[in-house]
Amino acid sequence: xxxxxxxxxxxxxxxxxxxxxxxxxxxxxxxxxxxxxxxxxxxxxxxxxxxxxxxxxxxxxxxxxxxxxxxxxxxxxxxxxxxxxxxxxxxxxxxxxxxxxxxxxxxxxxxxxxxxxxxxxxxxxxxxxxxxxxxxxxxxxxxxxxxxxxxxxxxxxxxxxxxxxxxxxxxxxxxxxxxxxxxxxxxxxxxxxxxxxxxxxxxxxxxxxxxxxxxxxxxxxxxxxxxxxxxxxxxxxxxxxxxxxxxxxxxxxxxxxxxxxxxxxxxxxxxxxxxxxxxxxxxxxxxxxxxxxxxxxxxxxxxxxxxxxxxxxxxxxxxxxxxxxxxxxxxxxxxx
Length: 336
Fold this sequence. Notes:
- By secondary structure, this protein is of the alpha/beta class.
- 36% of the residues lie in helices and 21% in strands.
- The chain is built from 7 helices and 17 strands.
- The chain has a 6-stranded mixed beta sheet, sandwiched between helices.
- The radius of gyration is 31 Å and the shape is elongated.
């Protein structure tokens, strides 16, 4: 570490730290210089002063800037559009599991494949909603998906697989305006099942902003039954019925391919027994923080923290011995 410049990142303003520590330091120094009447010698108070100074330095958070790390940052904005109609919980994923399980697993794969990217989440059923604007907080994205529930069955009046086209176009346009140098990717996750009489809206308007991505299709040709949803987390065991029989949701690969063609990306029909294939990010930068130019710091607060722990251990051992001596004296006094 020779030749390195040590910097400090205090947990509180330095003035506040001084206000907190100065009175305690004054008491310790006073006890250190005054004659001892209790048998506590200068050495003990000197150790306590060292412990106080170590606490002060620890809260200053010393460090060395530019500590070397190997990171991969994806300089890309990724918009994820997820179908939340009743069909997203059709039970034909990995046998009889809801398709939503596959969606969550695949979004996690997307997050892992593009570290450092910014993510936005759009959901769509009877309407489209921007659930999460562009952010690097991938944990927030996955939390949003964990609590994601399909539309309430009784309110469902059919939906269009292209209803999110306008919101997607707006989100991508805003991203392009605010950060024109960043690449943009789109991942559309759904089954392609159009349940309204009108033709689905086109995604061609978004194509000019899209540098990559994929349409991920869920479902089977045989179809899967859908449970009734009421907006709660436990919707019981009833299935949606149509004309006296269980309604089945089937994948529509033709519609999904049309969406993929509109966006200029590939279609991948997903299944639980096949690994997802994701495209490479359009632009990536490796070792993004290696030079320390983005505020990477090697923390050194652990050094004074070790000193504090060691001195606290000494104080505890001394107190234990003192208590043991007092108990011994009490016992001898009782015997007498």
